[in-house]
Amino acid sequence: MALNRDSELAGTDATARVFLLRMYDGDRELPYRVCRSARARSIRISIDRDYAITLTLPRGASERQGVDFLESKAAWLRRHLSRQRPRPGLLDFLRRDPAVSLEGRRVPLEVRGNASRTALRFSRGGEKVVLEAVSSDVGEAETVELLRGLAARALVWRTETMAERHGFEVRRISVRDQSSRWGSCSSGGTVSLNWRLLLVPPEGQDYVILHELAHLRHMNHSPRFWNELCRLDPLAREWDRWLTETGEAVMALGRKVKPSAS
């Protein structure tokens, strides 16, 4: 049986193109195929179970328009592919980038096994963070516990520094293991932060802290709040977008295990 001229299969170009997509761990080259369809009314993107991308173009649409559409949907592609692709564990993440964000800078991180006891070695202004664990093969559960202990001190220090710098009074600072939020601020003046802020760039960490501090003056996301936040951090909108589009994979780290209660 002959294929219908309007069949989408009849218009599929077998030549794979490449689209460069910026992900949280670097740029990725994503192959995609172009499908021309007389039935399609608009440009659309589909991703199959093997993560193959098909760009469907209606009659009259150019491939350049299709590429522009792909670029406009970069955030959607990132979210979709992050959910579908196997995500690296915390240890893999730290092997690629053995550092944490402390006091507004990236500090090298070293994890050591065969220690006499579990310990965290770090001083304010230090040049390295050393996490020591008893076992020879340091596992993810131990690493999560040690990082949470570091965050409980370092994020409090950073928040106190930023609050003093910008004239905020914080009643209490807590560091938690939130499932989806980077931070929150209560009407009672408590700022809560996610320990995974150690793993994002220093500027992103500061953005979240300033975001929550700004809520001490505006307990909403009104234009007045955003004006205040952008005064504190002129790149606030960019970092908000970065955390939404790219930070999702970092938020997923350390969730396969439950660290012991402190």
Structure description:
This protein is an alpha/beta fold and 262 residues long. The protein has 2 domains: 9-84, no CATH class; 90-251, Zincin-like. Helix content is 35%, strand content 23%. It has 8 helices and 11 strands. It has helices at residues 63-72, 74-84, 90-96, 140-166, 202-214, 223-232, 236-245, 248-251, and strands spanning 17-23, 26-37, 44-47, 53-58, 99-102, 105-112, 119-121, 129-132, 172-176, 183-185, 190-194. The strands form 3 sheets. It has a 4-stranded mixed beta sheet with strand order 1-2-4-3. β7 (119-121) and β8 form a beta hairpin. α4 crosses α5 and α5 (202-214) packs across α7. The longest helix has 27 residues, at 140-166.
Report the sheet-strand fraction. 15-25%
**What is the CATH class of the largest domain?**
Alpha Beta
The assigned CATH architecture of the largest domain is 2-Layer Sandwich
| Rounded radius of gyration (Å) | 23 Å
Largest sheet: 4 strands, mixed
Any low-confidence stretches, pLDDT <50, length ≥5? 1-15, 257-262
Short description:
This protein is α/β, with parallel strands linked by helices and 262 residues long. It contains 8 helices and 11 strands.
Topology:
Elements: E1 17-23, E2 26-37, E3 44-47, E4 53-58, H1 63-72, H2 74-84, H3 90-96, E5 99-102, E6 105-112, E7 119-121, E8 129-132, H4 140-166, E9 172-176, E10 183-185, E11 190-194, H5 202-214, H6 223-232, H7 236-245, H8 248-251
Parallel strand pairs: 2-4, 6-8, 9-11
Antiparallel strand pairs: 1-2, 3-4, 5-6, 7-8, 10-11
Helix pairs in contact: 4-5, 5-7
